[in-house]
Amino acid sequence: xxxxxxxxxxxxxxxxxxxxxxxxxxxxxxxxxxxxxxxxxxxxxxxxxxxxxxxxxxxxxxxxxxxxxxxxxxxxx
Length: 77
What we know:
Elements: H1 5-8, H2 34-41, H3 46-53, H4 57-76
Helix pairs in contact: 3-4
């Protein structure tokens, strides 16, 4: 079984170069892996998510609100 990036990367010295991975982010401080980011920092604030995604925290909030609205709509069906 193939190990996940977060299990095999040395958090201090390695970065993941597999940009085809759905968990890859362009954020070298967290080894370019969202799993490593969560493992190192726990829950992320909107500001932290924005830094990792290259957008403002306001845009992240807009995306979050839209996703929650869709989930609420689906749960009513």
